[in-house]
Amino acid sequence: xxxxxxxxxxxxxxxxxxxxxxxxxxxxxxxxxxxxxxxxxxxxxxxxxxxxxxxxxxxxxxxxxxxxxxxxxxxxxxxxxxxxxxxxxxxxxxxxxxxxxxxxxxxxxxxxxxxxxxxxxxxxxxxxxxxxxxxxxxxxxxxxxxxxxxxxxxxx
Amino acid sequence: xxxxxxxxxxxxxxxxxxxxxxxxxxxxxxxxxxxxxxxxxxxxxxxxxxxxxxxxxxxxxxxxxxxxxxxxxxxxxxxxxxxxxxxxxxxxxxxxxxxxxxxxxxxxxxxxxxxxxxxxxxxxxxxxxxxxxxxxxxxxxxxxxxxxxxxxxx
Lengths: 156, 154
Hints:
With 156 residues, chain A is an alpha/beta fold. Chain A is 33% helix and 12% strand. In chain A, helix 3 links the parallel strand 2 (64-68) and strand 3 (91-95). Chain B has helices spanning 2-10, 30-41, 98-109; strands at residues 23-26, 44-52, 61-69, 74-82, 88-89, 113-114. Chain B is of the alpha/beta class.
């Protein structure tokens, strides 16, 4: 940029831009989808290119909750608690068919879609999803974060 | 061979199986009665499981034990036919892993084991009502532990 030139932006989109490229994720991995998640996080597909390379293994430091794998009714209170522990702003990604609808586990044990427990922002379908699908879902989440309107009123 | 001795002593009839594992139907307290004798040779308990034959006039459940003898390199399958509500003697004092296997059967089928040190649910949560692997348990009936944001998908 030459001297004297300048860019204008709104605080809102600046915040969105900053947030979407520094996603700290909490992977809530319960099943085989975790393998595909690892593939997406490892060097070949490299989720770090999207600024989402740092996984935090405590929900208190995370922005995005990746729910990867089947959630059983026994586990449902745990997932709710993990979600409640995350600080705002927070987003949730439902990863894989089992997480989205219960998948093939249509029985007494599995929750038929985690959006019954916690609000979900992005659904990544597939059994399991390919790493490309995961990256696509991540980019969709980034788009959503960029567009997000901020609440300027004082919180609570 | 201990297996032959047991077979002759108790006059067990062999059941035809596809996998070639010697299989016997036995009286309900058979394993408990024989457990010490069996344990001498069949030191490994591979699995205990149960089958629900709902609709059968009597002896609704079957318990299936699968033993392994390392010295003889053979397996042994023993089946017990039991009524609904009938208690089966535990073998957890001899084969330690039977403790959890019996708890799983109790959890899934509601079959109780006499003399078990700690018979409670192992996989499901304590507030769960009923036993899901029984054939009369509704196939899609779920019992959520927390209040859901929306009704579950059907």
